[in-house]
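Render this sequence as a predicted structure.
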Amino acid sequence: MNHIAWPEIHGFHNVRKSVQKFPELLGGRGVVEYRAKVKVHGTNAAVQIHGVRSRDDRVVAQSRSQIVTSGNDNAGFAAWVEAHADEWLDHEDYIGDRIVFGEWCGPGIMKGVAVNKIPEKVFAVFAAYEIRDDSPLFVEPSSLMYLSDIPGVHVVPWHGDSIEIPLLESAEIVQPILDRVNAAVAEVEAHDPWVLDEFGVDGVGEGLVYYPLGVSRKMFADLCFKAKGEKHKIVAKSQPAQIDPVVASSVDAFVAMVLTDARLEQGARAASGGDLSYEKRFMGSFLAWICKDVEKETGAEREVSGLEWRQVQRSVSDRARRWYIARAEMVV
């Protein structure tokens, strides 16, 4: 069984830079319409449902990076999927093999947000598509609601009204739109509206993800962007959505800027299989994850700062190692 990855979602300045360099990504349009969903602070997960395989392997669980099973799990997601395999297979009216993406979230997964305080873990669904090259991506909540009768599945709704962003226009034109985006993120961070409406729990939200409407699945990956609140951003000194990346004045300044607690804790969870653990046996996996994530996610910041990855890699690894060791020693 092949793993099918959810595309990496970047910040707004990455999207703007891409379409300025490759305007064909816009498919001839000058303005892109977006709608937002609350960014659920959990661990990325997916369920593959296959209609033509044996019953034992027709329902397959995924983490962000691999197929998972109850024997090699990610925060209990595979065990939950296996326990509800029959419910996933009940939707035979859905033609073709398909994959459903979402966040596995709830108690014990991440920390410091409202969704951690709900009574039990749930699968927050935000997208799906048929497993074939020409399938559209289904992100409209109404097109996903058929899944909500599966115990533990919750479909993430739209948040707020749609906005139109002229991605190729000047900063003076785009900035007022981003000001509205950043204000919306601040409101979500103060009180997560989805968790409050769905579970009656008030608390901090992570941010918003802005979905481009009316685009192909391939264009979606190029145009979608995320905007995180202050407590969850992975680059310090940045706004949730901004036109240009942050400039670092030195290697040390760059490392301090990109190694936020949010990124480091995310790496610690990834290394240990979903739990926030600081066991020394996971340190190698943690450092590998951090270096890969920083290299992948901060190309724009390095470029405007005049830095190459080889110049910052060792400092990133050293600082991350010290951070991890300090927390491992606190746990002992």
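Summary. The two ends are 40 Å apart (CA to CA). The chain has a mean pLDDT of 91.
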